[in-house]
Amino acid sequence: MEETTLYTIIVHSENFSGILNQIAAVFTRLQVNIESLNVSASSMKNVHKFTISCKTTAKNIDKILKQINKKMDVINASCYTDDEIFQSEIAMFKISTDEFKNSEDTSRLLRGYNTHIVEVTPDFIVVELAGSSEAINSLYEELTRIGCAVKQFVRSGKVAVTASTLEKVSDLLSKRAERYKDRLQ
Question: If you placed Cys at 85, which of 21, 110, 160, 176 could pair as Cys (CB 3.0 to 4.6 Å)?
Answer without folding.
Answer: 160
